[in-house]
């Protein structure tokens, strides 16, 4: 069929009602958002953002309502989609923006693709990777993996991806989303090492839309976390340690979930796998810990400092 591309859509969308099909690859995926309220009667109040790209650049795509339970788990980072009968809207200005792995990629930020079950009902097709042709010009998924030795030089809020061997995982804890509200964030702390430093990555892992992975993080698993943000205490406390926290677009993978993921081709991931082959599993198991309360960032040494 006749295809269009994202660059052409941005230039012509106001003058059209119907759009030609789009062929895009998913580069980023947000957590699933529930926006239901007691006074509203929406059947399926769900929404998820994706960043999709073709040869012309990258654009946001929003999955709405009943399409979320139907398609969210099938739409993975790296998946190629054929979209038909979609809508184009002005983009929502307050959404989070993931950091692209390819800094040269053009971003179309003024509009977004809207996929809904009506007005019009979108047709979504997933193209198997073995059927994707090079002449379609779809970009590959690129990452920003760092090692633990890189971390000390990175600024606050820097976006990166990490891989490591889990040596500690804490119990799940809850924090209120806002003061005096009934909604909570669920999170847990983890440590992971990659052989490039004596220090581990300290990871604050909020529950993403991957409960099966979040609940199964345990010592000695290979943990990959994407779209993490560097957190540095910019106040006067020099004893605080730098750590990484999840963002809205973070994805978490553990042993058993790595097969077929695009990051398996990354050089730093391959280097990490080589390092693990040189390690004694029995020695590493002795250093691992699971559960318990993990007070972090640590309070100052004396009460007067506090």
TrEMBL record:
<dbReference type="InterPro" id="IPR040893">
    <property type="entry name" value="RADX"/>
</dbReference>
<dbReference type="InterPro" id="IPR012340">
    <property type="entry name" value="NA-bd_OB-fold"/>
</dbReference>
<dbReference type="GO" id="GO:0003697">
    <property type="term" value="F:single-stranded DNA binding"/>
</dbReference>
<protein>
    <submittedName>
        <fullName>RADX protein</fullName>
    </submittedName>
</protein>
<dbReference type="Pfam" id="PF17659">
    <property type="entry name" value="RADX"/>
</dbReference>
């Amino acid at each position: 069929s006749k295809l269009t591309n994202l660059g052409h859509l941005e230039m012509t969308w106001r003058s059209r009602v119907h759009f030609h099909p789009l062929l895009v690859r998913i580069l980023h995926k947000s957590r699933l958002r529930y926006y239901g309220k007691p006074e509203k009667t929406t059947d399926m109040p769900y929404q998820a953002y994706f960043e999709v790209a073709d040869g012309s650049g990258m654009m946001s795509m929003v999955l709405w309502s009943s399409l979320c339970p139907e398609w969210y788990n099938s739409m993975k980072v790296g998946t190629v989609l054929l979209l038909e009968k979609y809508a184009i809207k002005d983009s929502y200005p307050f959404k989070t923006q993931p950091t692209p792995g390819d800094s040269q990629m053009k971003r179309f930020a003024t509009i977004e693709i809207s996929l809904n079950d009506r007005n019009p009902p979108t047709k979504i097709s997933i193209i198997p990777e073995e059927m994707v042709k090079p002449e379609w010009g779809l970009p590959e998924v690129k990452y920003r993996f760092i090692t633990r030795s890189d971390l000390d030089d990175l600024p606050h809020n820097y976006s990166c991806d990490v891989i490591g061997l889990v040596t500690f995982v804490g119990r799940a804890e809850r924090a209120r989303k806002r003061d005096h509200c009934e909604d909570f964030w669920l999170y847990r702390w983890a440590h992971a090492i990659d052989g490039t430093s004596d220090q581990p990555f300290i990871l604050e892992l909020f529950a993403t839309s991957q409960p099966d992975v979040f609940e199964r993080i345990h010592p000695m698993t290979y943990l990959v976390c994407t779209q993490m943000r560097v957190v540095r205490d910019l106040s006067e406390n020099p004893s605080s340690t730098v750590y990484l926290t999840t963002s809205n677009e973070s994805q978490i993978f553990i042993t058993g979930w790595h097969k077929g993921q695009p990051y398996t081709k990354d050089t730093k991931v391959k280097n990490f796998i080589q390092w693990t082959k040189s390690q004694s599993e029995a020695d590493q198991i002795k250093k691992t810990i699971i559960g318990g309360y993990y007070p972090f960032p640590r309070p100052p040494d004396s009460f007067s400092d506090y």
